[in-house]
From TrEMBL, chain A:
CDD domains recorded: LolA
Source taxon at top rank: Bacteria
SUPFAM superfamilies for this protein: Prokaryotic lipoproteins and lipoprotein localization factors
Sorted UniProt keywords: Signal
N-terminal signal peptide: 1-17
Name of this chain's protein: Cell envelope biogenesis protein LolA
Automatic annotation (TrEMBL), chain B:
Protein name: Lipoprotein
Taxonomic superkingdom: Bacteria
PROSITE patterns: PROKAR_LIPOPROTEIN
Species, as recorded: Aquimarina muelleri
Length: 205, 201
């Protein structure tokens, strides 16, 4: 009997680890994140990416650095276990793959434009667009986890839903992108510095 | 008459088999074993940084192979940022496309990739003949009805050549190998502008 009570308590606690937010809490979060997004001029951060494929024994772990400068310059730089960087700048995607440089004009591609917009908005956390997404808000271990399900049919083929986790200050600490197959990519940010001076050279190809 | 003779010579040289063109010496097969073990460890996640050159345009990604169980491999390619490009299953003689990016969903491309990856994961290909060439023991095999020549030293595969009309069509080279992994793999197409370089990470 004692064991059953313990089990019930355990299940209840687990369920409560992720609870839906109230309307007031949602509005407070939105407000905090939006103010943050307006104030954010630059972001520099380390990141660890976990690629989860169900059939693998372990997630594929890659680490690197992220730089963002307003209005829309983004650099993802993978450092380990390979050197690869991608810069989104002026409607162009600049790739440096272990020294092999390449660029792609994204102005022509609607899909890439969307991707860039998504990256910039999700870095700043400011993407609470109910016209574009079905959004659900949860409280999880002192943080806020927001689930975005795209309403766009094309987009849904690539990404079923993605989660953005905000800490209590409204900073993005984790992004999880879930594919239709339920395989996912989880990116965890650390050593995040806001509004430090980031020279344009950081974003040079 | 002389031109006719030369033409005939060309015709016959042109039609010679790959072993003939490369002066292979036929040998007994009783003492030889052929097994491709480079993707055969079920405990291992085989992860490679890939660079693919198509029509002189390079693009990169992460190439993943997992042996799920005997005669069952999963082959997946993602971008460095984690987006899946394609996801294939090889189960016995069946081939299944679990996912492929819409823009790449072309039968001709899938067929090329299917044939190349089958060579990588096939552990015991249909064995036809054995030859000697320099220091190599060369095995003639058939995969998807095409002849493949496995160049081996001490049962370790160094190179596989897919031949057509007696010539090299695709060359697979394996470097930095031990029994259960080839750390560097190159797949080079001679009839297409396509090269795949894989480096284990």
């Amino acid at each position: 009997m004692h064991k059953i009570i313990c089990l019930i308590l355990f299940i209840t606690t687990t369920l409560h680890a992720q609870t839906k937010m109230s309307i007031a809490e949602i509005n407070a979060l939105k407000e905090k994140v939006k103010t943050h997004a307006i104030e954010t001029k630059t972001i520099s951060s380390d990141f660890t990416q976990y690629k989860h494929l169900d059939f693998l024994s372990n997630d594929i772990i890659t680490t690197g650095k992220l730089a963002f400068k307003t209005p829309n310059m983004v650099k993802w730089e993978y450092i380990k276990p390979f050197k690869y960087s991608v810069i989104f700048k002026n409607e162009t995607l600049y790739i440096n793959d272990e020294g092999n440089k390449n660029k792609i004009d994204i102005g022509a591609s609607e899909q890439f434009k969307k991707l860039n917009h998504l990256i910039v908005s999700s870095l700043k956390g400011d993407m609470f667009d109910d016209n574009e997404f079905v959004i659900n808000y949860y409280k999880k271990q002192g943080n806020s986890e927001v689930h975005f399900g795209s309403k766009d049919k094309k987009f849904k083929k690539y990404i079923k839903v993605f989660y953005i986790t905000f800490d209590s200050d409204g900073d993005v600490i984790e992004i999880k992108i879930i594919e239709p197959s339920n395989d996912y990519t989880r990116i965890v940010f650390s050593n995040r510095i806001l509004n430090s001076s980031l020279p344009d050279e950081v974003f040079t190809h | 008459m002389r031109y006719l003779l030369i033409s005939f010579c060309f015709f016959f040289v042109g039609c010679a088999s790959y072993p003939e063109n490369n002066n292979f010496i036929k040998r007994e097969i009783s003492d030889l074993v052929l097994k491709n073990t480079y993707f055969s460890d079920k405990q291992k996640d085989y992860i490679y940084k890939a660079t693919i050159n198509v029509n002189d345009k390079p693009f990169g990604g992460v190439f993943i192979v997992k042996k799920i169980r005997n005669n069952n491999h999963r082959v997946v390619f993602t971008t460095e940022m984690g987006n899946k490009i394609f996801d294939f299953s090889f189960i016995n003689e069946d081939f299944r496309v679990n996912y492929i990016l819409e823009d790449l969903n072309k039968k001709i491309l899938i067929n090329i990739l299917k044939k190349d990856f089958k060579v990588l994961i096939e552990e015991s290909p249909l064995f036809l003949n054995a030859f000697s060439s320099n220091n190599y023991a060369v095995f003639e095999t058939k995969i998807y009805d095409k002849r493949h020549y496995y160049y081996t030293i001490s049962n370790q595969i160094h190179k596989i050549v897919r031949s057509g009309k007696g010539k090299e069509k695709v060359i697979f080279t394996f470097k930095n190998t031990d029994n259960f992994i080839a750390n560097l793999i190159k797949i080079e197409h001679k009839n297409l502008k396509l090269t795949i370089n894989l480096k284990s990470i």
